[in-house]
């Protein structure tokens, strides 16, 4: 773990622009396998990394934890289907004197050496994702066409994307040429014991209670493909746990945090509610 | 607990999905659930899980609203416990009817106890139905009901010697509950005791209690001989047959008259050696498609629940036609910021600005017609390694799933099939036509396709193209599934039919028809790309994945 003084020194060197993007407190992360070592090795090579896995299994938390561990600022961009390349790299804006260039989040990270995390990259339009191509091979450059500038990536810059493979996979998928530029770390929901440990920690509830939540999640994950697109995520269970920590009974907490958000289908809700009732 | 909203009976059909999801959620297994019709009015009906199907009463008489729903849950949870913890069937052997009833009762208690160890909450579904009390006449049905309660309800007190004995024996074996043979041992012993007590037991009128339990037919192996003279078992067998054969379907074998085709057209064939068409060279003969059971197609959909669900989701998103943001429009409902900025910059720089500075949202609607053309030549009977079924079977599965998707989208579509037996007899089968609904008849035709003869692609493509050209859609797509090279017994030159098919495809482009081919031949790259063009061919290297590939491809092509 880096010493605080070294931390501070490193931050001082970093430009003002990115100072807010450092993470001060260690984000809680429970390693599931060797993903921390893998990521550290990848970062040492500045290898672009793709985090795969279902929603709410800890991808974002992991990358935040790694940014803290590596003591790098992290710039997160939540991708959406209307995102243009300009939203990523930047654009000219008007001011009284004329036009002025504003770096986008990606350019900011590239210029000053941050980890840039593009969350749910498949959501972005395919022409947008192409701008990351020159950054993710040996060139490590970002051409700003409109500005006529070629930004060479800072030596600390790394690109991380997240990608949920099961999600609308036919209509939205990464281009083959994009996929093949990345190393990938696969995330899954943790094993029951580990998941209970995470929930107990994050929601501050007893371990046995957390274990019951995990058993309930198992029901919803069984229904994946039989009425549910995705089972209850670890994040959902933590939310349910937090409600319980405030004195809400298990079944009510599960209704609020789990059954009602996950589906609008009355039949599936009925089945889930009945299955939850069986657990206690 | 929910309050009864209506005071009428709850039909199985209204809770079927919920029950199914319940079983999947608990045990991760999805047994096919079916309704079991009521018989005589005075005959209480129980669930049954004989022969791979779980049949639940179509409704529970005397129960309504929330209570009926709870009872359905209790029933399906009980049957699921059997499926989860039961083992192979007990042989009836020399057991007396009373012993059979008691072994079943102990087995019921055993699987319930095991299920309760995993899900203690199941008790709240089952316990309310155990209403036997330790009073009243000592009859066999009453004692059996009391024993049933004693084996599940720890708070129940019963001083009857036989009931207490059963309870002690059952709980003494707590450690061995995972072994189904204890049910048989305990049940037969208790049966003996009850027999010695000279309590009357009428096997004909005996009904399993409480109401949520099944009739136990699924527990027993009655043997061939016994089955013949036992009414209840007979009934079960009969039910099986009607469901397997789906009585509504006429599972007619290929009829003789179906073999007589009607010649409907003559098409030219391209001879690449002489570089010109041979006029009226092939005769296209339409045959009535033979019929198979439509339930075969429904079974396909049931075998792929995950895929069907994915398709349904995709249908929904494809159908609502996602809004498309059009930028740099001359008019629109909002300003396009990018365009505004560059216009202002141009203005300041002294250039003429572009005045298309608006953006608007637009929905694009689907307007396309699809013809799915299946190759049903002899080679499609080959068994695919790793899949255990033939190419034709996989084509059928793929077509069924695709048809499900297309019918859901409301795109006009047709499914045709072809094979050939020399140029004089290019056989063409209409499984479903453009105007026709995708109904039981279409499914029967799809189920009845058989693989024979050769693959003269060109003539079939021309015919399908003509059909498609008559459709008035904006986009017309011919989707072909083929497992091999074009060939026929009267053609020696391998290139000849390939070139002819290529020619047919080129001609179709003139009519604005898109053609796409799904090739199932791993070595088909050379000739399929030659015929259809590199971009219009998808090679499926693992044929067993065709059923999932084809609908997804369709969404890609038309999305």
Your description of this structure?
The complex is a heterodimer of chains A (280) and B (559). By secondary structure, chain A is α/β, with parallel strands linked by helices. Chain A folds into two domains: 4-186, P-loop containing nucleotide triphosphate hydrolases (Rossmann fold, 3-Layer(aba) Sandwich); 192-278. Chain A has twelve helices and nine strands. In chain A, the strands form three sheets. In chain A, strands 2-5-8-1-9 form a five-stranded parallel sheet, with helices on both faces. Chain A has a two-stranded antiparallel ribbon with strand order 3-4. In chain A, strands 6-7 form a two-stranded antiparallel ribbon. In chain A, strand 6 and strand 7 form a beta hairpin. In chain B, the strands form four sheets. An eight-stranded mixed sheet of chain B has the order 5-6-12-11-10-13-14-15, sandwiched between helices. In chain B, strands 7-9-8 form a three-stranded antiparallel sheet. In chain B, helix 2 (65-85) packs across helix 3 (97-118), helix 11 (305-319) runs parallel beside helix 18 (546-558) and helix 13 (391-409) runs parallel beside helix 18 (546-558). The longest helix of chain B has 22 residues, at 97-118. The radius of gyration of chain B is 32 Å and the shape is elongated. The chains are: A alpha/beta (280), B alpha/beta (559). Chain A binds chain B through residues 82, 84, 86, 91-94, 98-99, 168, 170-171, 219-220, 222-227, 229, 266-268, 270-272, 274-275, 277-280, and chain B through 15, 17-22, 24-28, 30, 69, 73, 77, 119-122, 124-125, 305-306, 309-310, 313-314, 317-318, 325, 338, 341, 344-345, 348, 552, 555-556, 559.
How do the strands and helices of this protein lay out in sequence?
The complex is a heterodimer of chains A (280) and B (559).
Chain A: H1 4-13, H2 35-44, E1 49-52, H3 59-70, E2 74-78, H4 85-89, E3 90-95, E4 98-103, H5 105-112, E5 115-119, H6 126-129, E6 141-144, E7 149-152, E8 158-163, H7 176-179, E9 183-186, H8 192-203, H9 207-222, H10 234-245, H11 250-262, H12 266-278
Chain B: H1 12-27, E1 33-36, E2 54-57, H2 65-85, E3 90-91, H3 97-118, H4 123-126, H5 140-152, H6 161-172, H7 181-196, E4 220-221, H8 223-229, H9 231-245, E5 262-271, E6 276-287, H10 295-303, H11 305-319, E7 323-329, E8 334-335, H12 337-349, E9 358-363, E10 368-375, H13 391-409, E11 413-420, E12 426-432, H14 440-447, H15 457-469, E13 475-482, H16 494-510, E14 513-519, H17 525-532, E15 537-539, H18 546-558
Parallel strand pairs in B: 1-2, 3-4, 6-12, 10-11, 10-13, 13-14, 14-15
Antiparallel strand pairs in B: 5-6, 7-9, 8-9, 11-12
